[in-house]
């Protein structure tokens, strides 16, 4: 079998840990073939990490997507519109939903056997509600139910705004599996745990079985430290933050989150996304998000780029491995970080009110990105419908075509 890889070492620390594919399943096989062509000397490692059959051995457990990833798949693989969708009788909004749902249905189908064989523990396909609805619980709940009904192994992804957490409670109460995303603070995790717990209690009181549901809360770890507000607040206090100090900040929040999740009665797992690769002064690549976490149960979303990083390091005989000891944060670094509101408000429990979750700088950035992808797909659908129905273009369609927005 060879030397244990990242996943094997991770599971040896805690068998509940998992790796998730952070892209559409349709990109899985092509990426694997590119890696085999580029790194033939570690073909056995690649085969263990990315078996052809999702059920062949324990590797990637589930799949997560977001509006940006779904949009990229649709724009790159035009067969979704060319062979399956009759555009002539659809509005741009209906076409957008149809194309988006097709990507989710395809992914869920690819994972369904794994979902069944694992008794619903693995094989989940995450599908995110529209980012434009981030402040409307009613619309997020309605769309969440639509996504839930696309396939039995769809996990609905909801942003961790105050309204999003209200939607989470409603969806959990109806037996929906949930991934709370856009989370950057310990307060959000606490509120997310409470929303899921309330939803489960409501489900139980109405006779709805939640035993096979799965719940994760996503800490977008690499997005926390890169926000300009962090550096600006440090500068206002006559401090500069080194790249390593930004990573320490992210890891300290991870530790707080893990302690919170471990102490909770709610069956929730921490999912780390937005993992970042850093380059040191000697030009060597490393990833603290992978190498300094994983002593306790943790899920990780790995993008194709992050998988390539693991394979490249393996090919040089410098494998990436999870943490082997607890974090040892330099006391001076911790003291420095605790002087900055951006950090300590995220680190300390109850430091951010739920109505302010969606105002956090990292939340705003992530939401803007998702909305930009949503608009790109909307614009694409407007153009398709305009071509199919040239005499029926409305002013909204014209505006969306020309400016990427709708009046």
From TrEMBL:
GO BP annotations listed: carbohydrate metabolic process
Highest taxon of source: Bacteria
Keywords: Schiff base
PANTHER family cross-referenced by the UniProt entry: TRANSALDOLASE
Name listed for the protein in its UniProt record: Transaldolase
Species per Swiss-Prot/TrEMBL record: Pseudomonas rhodesiae
